[in-house]
Design goal:
The protein has helices at about 5-15, 25-35, 65-90, 100-110, and strands at about 15, 40-45, 55, 55-60, 120-125, 125-130, 140-145, 155, 160-165, 170-175, 185, 190-195, 200-210, 210-220. It is an alpha+beta fold and about 230 residues long. It has a single domain, classed as Jelly Rolls (Sandwich), CATH 2.60.120.620. A hairpin with a 6-residue loop joins strand 9 and strand 10 (about 170-175).
Length: about 230
């Protein structure tokens, strides 16, 4: 993966779709078919019950499936480089470790010891309201959503939505389709943006537009654990 180019795209647009797939079709199918196996998951959320949207998502339990653990491990270090640069630009004092195991240890010391990678499923009419994925005091500022189904083939609609709220300005929204196996990298809650007096913090929320037909499944890769 050309992480330098990806980092420039994230800085410019607030998100970036990976130019190469992160998972192959067989891995995508295995994760889709495993959605019904409750032994894999620690928790299942009916989104309508909590007014999060319409759909269902399931959080994996530890140990994660090998393909999910490997993807999380492989993508963390280059994203940590971006995260630490963002913290420096925003004047934050803390820094993220270069190794995922060290971040996990920090989370567990803070009482955040539940796995956060998840699979989300939407059928026709399903959607996800705009939100941020914060599960405790420790929050890694970037995450990835990987498409497990094909837009325009397995489902229609269901674009990834990213909305920025800049100070003294109206919100800006972007709809982003993601090909099968590819991922979209985006902020967990905020990102730095260049202004007249230097970089400032811009809040970012994400969601999913209404699925018009078919079934849409994605893998969410979040790097901090939950309380």
């Amino acid at each position: 993966m050309d992480w330098d180019t990806l980092a420039r795209q994230i800085d410019a647009d607030g998100f970036a779709v990976t130019p190469e797939p992160l998972l192959d079709p067989v891995e995508c199918r295995e994760l889709r078919e495993g959605f019904g196996d409750g032994r894999r998951y620690r928790s299942t959320v009916d989104m309508a019950r909590f007014r999060f949207g319409e759909g269902c998502y399931r959080y994996f339990r530890y140990p994660l499936p090998p393909v999910v653990a490997a993807l999380r491990q492989a993508t963390y270090a280059p994203l940590a480089t971006i995260a630490n640069r963002w913290h420096e630009q925003l004047g934050e004092t803390g820094r993220f470790p270069a190794d995922l195991a060290q971040l996990t240890a920090r989370c567990h010391e803070a009482g955040q010891n539940r796995a956060t990678p998840l699979v989300l499923r939407y059928e026709a009419g399903g959607y996800n309201c705009l939100h941020q994925d914060l599960y405790g005091d420790i929050a890694f500022p970037l995450q990835i959503t990987v498409a497990l189904t094909r837009p325009g083939v397995d489902f229609t609609g269901g674009e990834n939505l990213f909305v920025e709220q800049r100070p003294r300005s109206q919100s800006r929204g972007t709809a982003v389709p993601v090909p099968l196996g590819h991922g979209v990298v985006f902020p967990t809650r905020y990102r730095p943006v260049a202004g007249a007096k230097g970089r400032y913090r811009v809040a970012v929320r994400h969601g999913v537009s209404t699925v018009r037909s078919g079934e849409r499944l994605t893998l969410g890769v979040i790097f901090h654990d939950a309380r």
